[in-house]
Write a structure and sequence with these properties.
Length: about 100
């Protein structure tokens, strides 16, 4: 968990959400192009499958020598609109050159 806290707010973290998949692919490729040896791809909930797609597209089409270094999964508890606690799955993928 300390590694996750240490990397939050840094340039080499891409948070996957509602944008098109290729927007996140471009962000990851740009991070590698800027000289980062590893890029963290993070997502929650329904965006998890998109995060996996981003990692695979980067590996197969753009940065063929990239490897998936580590995968962390977890659960976060958040409050919905009705102030009820809801568990949301999370994932963190580390792509390394």
């Amino acid at each position: 968990m300390t590694e996750t806290k240490r990397n939050q707010g840094k340039d080499n973290v891409v948070f996957v959400g509602k944008k098109p998949t290729m927007a996140y692919v471009l962000a990851v490729v740009t991070q590698f192009g800027d000289g980062h040896p590893e890029v963290f791809i993070k997502a929650r909930g329904r965006a998890i499958s998109k995060a996996v797609d981003v990692a695979e597209i980067v590996r197969n089409r753009f940065v063929q020598n990239a490897i998936i270094g580590n995968v962390k999964t977890g659960t976060e508890t958040i409050q919905d609109e009705n102030k009820q606690n809801v568990n949301v799955s999370t994932i963190e993928l580390v792509l390394k050159k």
